[in-house]
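To whoever is on call:

I kicked off a structure prediction for a single chain this morning and the downstream step that reads the tokens threw a length-mismatch warning. I double-checked the sequence; it's 234 residues and nothing unusual in it as far as I can see. Pasting both halves so you can look.
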Amino acid sequence: MRKVFWDDPYQSSLSTTVASVVGNEVLFDATIAFSFSGGQESDLATVNSFPILNSRIHDQDIIYILPDNHGLMAGDKVEMKIDWQRRNRLMRLHFACELILVLINRLFANKKSNEELQPEEIDNVGIAKTGAHIAENGARIDFRLGENITKYFEPILSEYNKIIQADLPIEKGYINELAQIRYWRIQDIAKVPCGGTHVNSTAEVGMVKLKRDNAGKGIERIKITLVDPSVKYK
């Protein structure tokens, strides 16, 4: 299966072919519909106007669950469409979430301004992520930390805003193409393993608001919302 959402995360419609059908589970030759992974929620999508109800990963393919009356057969040509506004917000919030993660790790690692954080350093520099979730209207990221995390908000947001305003290009590619392990990278800032969908440059993400929440003993949660949730780029 070709995952077009990695080749072009801005593509909102796709003509594709049904590869196999087992009841209401359908596999396509190619797809633009991202399936829940890494904390990022699935796209809302349709196939020939039938809604995709759910999905699951099987051997690196995505199996989509359609209504029982979908009527599709192997070899059928179909049109897949995603909710672009939702995709756009998910992309922006996903990157915002991961950039906050990077900046906290850089802060704890005492990185100099031009020292790039490497994958093996993430969650291994005195603070560790314990969970994350990216939805259309907000994201959260949880850390194991024995102090109130708001004391770090000012330096984190200061660096975040500089990166957004600089409109830096976001490189995306494979760490291991056979295993389908992806990454994003900003030169001199970080290289991060990630299989989500991401925008092309930091300015597209926009500014964010941070709010602290206590998610349990020893766990600090940062809630992230977009200052301007309106669609960027398109």
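Update from on-call: the warning came from a stale cache, not from the record. Cleared it. Sanity check on the structure: The first helix runs from residue 4 to 7.
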